[in-house]
Amino acid sequence: EAVEEARAEAGVQILLGGADSSSNTLDKLFSDGKDDFLKRLDFMSIHYQGLNPYSTYKPFLNKAGGRVLVWDTESWVANTDDRVAAVVAVNYATGHDRAVGIYGGNIAQQQNGSRFTWSVAASVGAVQHFIGERDFSRMLFMNGLPWVMLFDGLPDQAGVKNSDDGTIVIVGDIGDSFGKDSTLFRTVKPLAGQKATLSIVAHGTTYGLYDFYGNPVAPVEGRIVVPLDHRGFYLRTDGSKGSFDKLVKAVETGRIEGHDPVEIIAHDLLAPIATKPTLRLKITNVLNRPITGKLAVKLGAVQTDSPSEVSIEGNQSKWVDVKVVGGDASPANSYPLSVTFDAGADGVKTHEEGIRVNVIAKRTIKVDGKLDEWDGVLPQTVVGSGEVAPTLQEFAWQPFKQFDKGTGSGLATAYLSYDQNYFYFAAKAADSTPDAGMRRRDDPAYDDAHFYPEVAYRKVDESKPVQPTDFSVRWTGYLEPPVTGKFSLILTSDDGVRLWINDQQVIDKWVDGGGNKWGTADLEAGKRVKIRLEYFQGGGGATTQLKWVLPDGKPTIIPAEALFQKAEGDEKGLKAEFYANKDLTGAAVATRIDAKVDYAGWTDVPGGPKVVDGVQELRWPEGVRRYSYRMDPELPAGSAPRKDNVQIAFNVLSDDEKKRLPSPPGTPRHFTGYQCTDYEFALNPIADAFGGGVEIFRLTKPGMPTKHHYPRQPKSPLDGAVKDGKLVITRDDNMRIVECAIPWSEIPHVKAKLDAGEPIKFSYRVNDNGNASTMELSRLRSVAKRNSNAFQVHWVEHWANEVAFSFEK
Fold it and tell me: Model-level pTM?
C-alpha cells in the first residue's frame, strides 16, 4: 500500500515483486485460490528455472494493467565464456523479461584494491551489444533445427523499431545449458564422425557472423559457416535498407548438415495385438529441405506392414501407420521397436524403444491389497535405472507373483481398470527399504508439527560443559485394563544414564547389578506417567534397556536399539514419546509414536530455567504467530522428502482449458515446460505414529490453485483428501502393493473422455525412500521430454504426461 501511495504521489515507476521462484510465488501468494495479490504482483524473481519459467501462466498474462514480468536473478548456468550468448538468447525466447545467467564474480572482481575482469566479461559485452534491450521476436524454424532466434531492432525516439537493426542468434544444441532431455528434438544427435553446421551464402558487407566474444568470423569459400554446437553465434547486418530481410531469407534457405535428418516419435498401441492394431509413428524432418528415406520397422516377434519409403517436406511432420498383421501378444506387454530412416546422403536415423499396448480394462476390482483379480490385465512396468534382467519379467507381469528376492528396488508394475463407478489403479513395487509412513495431511496436527513450539532452547556459551539435559529422552507411558494393580519399571544401563519418573529422579533405588546400574520404580496401571532418561556427556547408554514388569512377574523389554540412541554433537538429543498398546491382554508393549530432534532436552518442565549452564530458554513472543520451521516440511506428494508412496496423474484438458499456454509466443509448441497434468493424487501410507491407515490426497484438480500443500499454507475450497475413494497399501516381504479406486466424481473430465470414446493420457510415479531414481511411466519415452509440471513437487525430475491409453469397451 505504501508503494502504491508513493507511485501515485511521485508519479514514478516502482515495481512490486519477488518471491524467489514461480513455485514460491504461487505457493505463498495464491494458495487460497484467490487473486488478492495479483494486482500488486508486477514481476516474479526466479532462479534456475531454465526452460520452465511461468511466462505462459494465463492468470499472470491476463492481469489487469499489464502482465506479470519474469526476471531471472540467479540462473548462473552461463559462467563460462562460450555459454553466455546461448543462455541469454534462450532465456528471452522462453519469456524472460530480464536475464542474468552469469555470476557477477565471474565477470569482474576486486582484490587488494585492484579491479580486474575475467574473460567472460567479453562475452557479456557482446551479448549486451548484439541483444541488449532488443525484444525477442520469434523462432525461425518452428518445427526443426537449429535453434534460430530473431530479435527486433531497437526503437527510435518515437518508439518505432528499426526493421534493419535486428539480431539473429543461432545455437545448435541448447541442451548443453538447459538439459538435453528438457528440449524438443531431444533424440536428434550429430551424425557419426561429423560436425553439424549451417552455411549461408555470403553477401559482401550486407551481413556477417560474430562469435560469442563479438569477434567477426570470416566466410569460407564464399559461405558463412555457423558451427551447430552448444555455443551461440550472432548474425548482424550493416543496417542498409532491407538487409535484415535478406539475412533472414539466407538463413531460412541455408544448408544444414551433420546431424540426424529426422526425429522419430513412436506412440503405443491402443488395442490388443489380437485385433491387429496400428502403431503410429510421427516422423519430423528437422532439416529445412525435402528428404526421402527408406523406412524399415521391426516390432519384436510381431509381424508388421509399413511403407518402405517416406518423403517429407522441410520442417514438416508426417504420420506413418505401421499395421500389425500377425504374431502373439507378449505377456509382459513389452515389444522392442526398431525404426530406421535411411535418407542417403542426408543421413541415417535409427530409433529404438519399448512399445506397449495401453488399454484400460473394463473390470470391477475389490480394493483389498490382493492382486489376484488383476490377472489378465495388461501390465505397465517402469524401471528406475538400468535394464531389467529377462528372468525378472514374469515377476513384473503376473500380478499375484512376488518379485525375485534379489530385486531390492527400482522396479514396479501397475495395472489399470474401470467400471461405472470408479477408475481403479494397482501397483506392486520392489522395495527392500520400507519406511514408517507419512503424516496425514488432513490432520490439523500436520501444520503445527513442523514449527517451533512456544519454548525452545539454544546453547549460548560454548565454554560450558555439556549437561545431562543435553541428551534427554522422554517417554509417556500408561497401562490400561485388563491390567490392574501395581507394576514395576526397571532400567538397566551403563554408567552415565539417569531415570526420571514424573519429573522425580530415581536416585535412591540405583543398585549395582553386576557391572550395570539398575533403577526401579513402582507404578500403578491406568495412570499416565512421564518417563525420562538423561545421558551424561561421555556416558554409555549403548546397553540401556527399559522393562515393564507386570504383577504376574512377566517382564517385557523395550529393545534398546529402537529407543536409545546416543546423540551426536553437543546440542542435539533425541526426544520421543511412547505409549503402551491399548489392546493389552496381559502383556504390556511400548509402542514408539514419534521421535524428533530436541535442543537442550526437556522443553516442557514447568518453571524451567531461563539460562542454565550455557543453555538459554527461548519463549516465543505473545501475539506473534510461529511461522519458523523447526524441521523440513514433509509434503504430501511424497517426493520431498522421498517417501514410500505412489502418485497418479491424468492429462485430459485441451490447451484452451489449461492454465498455461502450450508455449511462449513465437516458439514451437511445448518448447518450454507446459501443463501436462490436470488431475493428480498421492496414494499415501500413514505412519502408526500419526494414526495409521492410508490417505488419497488431492494434489491437482481443475479450479484448484497450483500449490505444493505446505504446512500452514492457506487452503482453497478444493484442498484435501478424497473422502469417497478407496485405498489399501500392504507389504509382502520385499514387495510393496498399492491398490486404489478413484470415484468418477473426482475426475469428471476423465469420465467425459470415456463417455466420448476418446483416449486419455495417464502416468504414475513410484517414490521410494531408499531409491533416488526417477520411476515414472513416461520416463525416456519418445513421446515425452523432461517436464517438471508432470508431477509434484515441481523441482524434482519429472517426464511429460504424454502416454496415451484407450478404454476397453
Answer: 0.80
